[in-house]
Amino acid sequence: MSGTDTPLEGWRPAFRGWRARRPFLGGLLLTLGGGWILLTVKASLKVVIHVGMQGVAGYLLPVVMVLCGLLTLFSPSQRLFYSVLGMLCSLGSWVTSNLGGFFVGLILGAVGSCMIFGWLPDQEPRVSRRERKAARAAAGQQAQGFGEGAGEPA
User: Fold this and answer.
1) What per-residue confidence (pLDDT) applies to 68?
2) In whole angstroms, how large is the CA radius of gyration of the chain?
3) Is the pTM for the entire model greater than 0.90?
4) Once rounded to an integer, what is the mean pLDDT over residues 121-145?
């Protein structure tokens, strides 16, 4: 067994592999946005008043945001449903939870939901413009070399 056949040891390579197979940053932002809104629901401002069902919604929407973010991290196959639900809860927190946690939680939740929605699991890494141009030039040179002697008899 050569040295390259041994598996990578430690928790960091394992975490990187786990993180690469899911929309990690989007789920983290959605979770942080819900957590921020939960923290600001009890802000000690005289302007903030919660009455009746609005008080319940003030806690319910950020809890759903946190759950959607965590479920995205641990069950990425359902990411589209969680991202749409997270976006709706983020936008709903504008009315129910101190302007969406004073806009910070609202923006974190909306950006995280968009990142979750746009994540593709099996996407090839992007090729830079310079590499695409070099590949086209190499393909063009091969095509020119092939076409020169094609019409001559052997």
Assistant:
1) 97
2) 25
3) no
4) 81
3-state secondary structure the chain: CCCCCCCCCCHHHHHHHHHHCCCHHHHHHHHHHHHHHHHHCCCCCCCCCCCCHHHHHHHHHHHHHHHHHHHHHHCHHHHHHHHHHHHHHHHHHHHHCHHHHHCHHHHHHHHHHHHHHHCCCCCCCCCCHHHHHHHHHHHHHHHHHHHHCCCCCC
39, amino acid identity: L
Residue 44 has pLDDT above 60, yes or no: no
pLDDT for res 126:
76
Tokens at residue 77, please?
A: 């196959």
Tokens 């969406």 -> residue: 100
Contact between 37 and 93 (Cβ < 8 Å):
yes
Contact call for residues 30 and 68 (beta carbons, < 8 A): yes
